[in-house]
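Backbone Fold Data
Goal — fold tokens
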Amino acid sequence: MSRKLPLAEGETARTACARAVLRTAVDEKTGELLPASVLAERVGWAAGLVSGMVGALLAEHWNTTDVGLLASGEDAGGRKLPSNAWTALRRLGWTTVAPAGVKVNDRIVRMAQEQAGRMLRAAKWRADLTAGVLATWPADPAKRTGEEWDAVREAVPRGQFLPSSVIKSRTRQALAFARQHGRLPVDVFELKPAPRTARMLLLSACDGQQATLERGDEPGRALLRLQLPTRPDPRSYRDWTWVACPITLPPTIPANAVLHLPTLRIHLGRVRADLAYTHAVPKAQRTGHSVALGVDWGLNTLLSAGAVRLHDNGRITALGSGGMLRAAGVLAKQHRLRRLSELLHAKTDQYQRLMAGDDQHRLAARHQLLTDEIRHVSARRSNLNDSLASPHAASPTRPRPSSTASPAPWLSARWSTRSKPQQWSPLPSRRPAGTGPRPDPPGPDPHAPRPGDAGHPPPPAHAAR
């Protein structure tokens, strides 16, 4: 399959990522069908080998000098480092080897270097943040003055855009280090040890000698071929075999998109593939648009948005129904805590069956520990609403639009929830700012967006495509 995406005039390439699951595979050497559990085991063996080499690289180069050299983008001779992390590490001479007696090919080492290089590059921002906090250490770490906040934001790169909670968190970590050692840390590398490495296979660092990905004959199907070990400690190249894994592509991947080698990781006993793909999209233009998007901030709906189209006769119609904010981050946390709660309940039920009502059983302590953990997880789940509401709570410092300002005509409208295009009707006039509490808006839908309301910040400039 060609890795070059054909582009027509007025198009550009865009890369996105979708998730797929490897449910089965075939060992090409023996012809054996590998179920999901066996495939996850063999992928886990390879990921374990890579993770061990990544840990060794991080432990060796977790210091200010090496991280600064890698982040500078130039080697000791002043030559520009490659963008790929594994090639940059090889240019600097930073390499690693497999454990004694274990045989791996060079592509496995590439994946380890790629993962370690990405983590070391990401550590540069944490190093600069910690250096700025330590260089402007406040007189009272529990409460900075206004001048001290200005100083620390000036010392941190792009500190004026950094949330205060990030600076406070790093301050608490340095303060805990000072209580334990009687002094402040020198840098982040003394403050925190080398991070733990995730067990994954970054196949993007490999070539055809380790992994290939081709589209299948049927639309929406692809075939991933890669070498996996047949034992956790392969002693020779004979302990590595080619495995063919059919993939059902998500519907979000266009039929003409170019597929790239995915990243494999184990999640709950299954192999997940983060599949990157490149597809063609129209180039953005500055003028001549006929479709626009309006966004409104509010207390009831937090964020509401709607798209409209401008026709040749000057008529504006809505493109289907509007949209509102979906708290994907909070919902993801909720789902994770729910799965954790289900696992903990399953373990406690099993312990109860084994204990058979005997409070002196040797599993009683473990059962009590899991019970306390369930209570802790339940408390975290109950606080998710507060976590969602706090960033959007009303603040008296928010900018208020002028009472005489008139919003754009296409924003002062209410969209229909029906799917067919509907002409927008103008919203009634609103109360000016500073005239007391706003009454409930007229109309049957109290949650409809109200751009231009008093007390609402002005909506951002409309984005058009």
Q: What stands out?
A: Residues 392-465 have pLDDT under 50 and may be disordered. The longest strand covers residues 270-282.
